[in-house]
Write a structure and sequence with these properties.
Structural class: alpha+beta
CATH class of one domain: Mainly Beta
Low-confidence stretches: 5-31
Number of strands: 13
Radius of gyration: 22 Å
Strand order of the largest sheet: 5-4-1-2-3-7-6
Largest sheet: 7 strands, antiparallel
CATH architecture of one domain: Beta Barrel
Distance between the termini: 64 Å
CATH superfamily of one domain: Trypsin-like serine proteases
Number of helices: 4
Shape: globular
Order of helices and strands: HHEEEHEEEEEEEEEEH
Mean pLDDT: 87
Strand content: 35-45%
CATH topology of one domain: Thrombin, subunit H
């Protein structure tokens, strides 16, 4: 009888500990998910306004970019940069940055990779750029996502939606489809998953479907990254 009672007690203890472990994991997962307000606070410092200029410094196009490494690697949409003589960026804190290098611009995928000048280590708080981590798995139907961008220089916005399709062939290009609202000027900005990871780069809108917008998969951006 004592052995049975001891075994029962041990079994209950194992179940209790297992339940606590699952509860702790669930709480940890829940804590890593952000709503729109939290997402903006976490991500906006890594998002910047882009000015594409002609040789005479006339404004050719504007768009958005997102920093993906602390040393200044950044992503945007290739069509924002096309035929620009030089680029300027205005960071979220208002600092203007020039001497931006285009490391890659793939017109087929619309992905582009930039290199911002090295952060000014001599200025307090500027030793590294704020950056978004890149998601390493494909998005799924129905996932909640957020789009950030600059429809105007001093007007960053955030919108929220879902993944309508993780893959669609649009004019021969693979695209993510999302209901997160996108307006002119947000091209090149980030699509962010609910964990705060970069899930894609905003490319444009789909004219044949209302409120469905086009996003470049991160796999297209990763193909431009320097080989390790």
């Amino acid at each position: 009888m004592k052995r049975k009672a001891a075994a029962l007690g041990l079994g209950l203890l194992v179940l209790l500990l297992s339940g606590m472990s699952l509860f702790t994991k669930a709480n940890a997962d829940e804590a890593a998910v952000y709503n729109a307000e939290e997402m903006y606070e976490r991500a906006q410092s890594a998002v910047f306004y882009i000015r594409a200029l002609n040789a005479d410094d006339a404004l050719k196009a504007t768009g958005t970019g997102v920093i993906i490494s602390a040393d200044g690697l950044a992503a945007t949409a290739c069509h924002v940069l096309t035929e620009a003589a030089r680029l300027e960026a205005v960071l979220s804190d208002g600092r203007a940055v020039s001497s931006i290098e285009v490391l890659g611009c793939d017109q087929e995928t619309d992905a582009a990779l930039l290199k911002l000048p090295a952060p000014d280590a001599g200025v307090e708080g500027n030793a590294a750029y704020p950056a978004l981590p890149i998601r390493d798995t494909a998005v799924k139907h129905g996932e909640n996502v957020f789009a950030l961008g600059y429809p105007m220089k001093d007007t960053p916005i955030i919108t929220e939606g879902i993944i309508n399709s993780p893959h669609a062939e649009i004019n021969g290009r693979g695209r993510i489809l999302t209901s997160a609202q996108i307006v002119s000027g947000m091209s090149g900005g980030p699509l962010i998953d609910r964990y705060g990871r970069l899930a894609g780069i905003i490319s444009g809108s789909l004219k044949t479907m209302n409120n469905i917008h086009l996003v470049i998969p991160v796999s297209d951006l990763q193909s431009l990254l320097p080989k390790q």
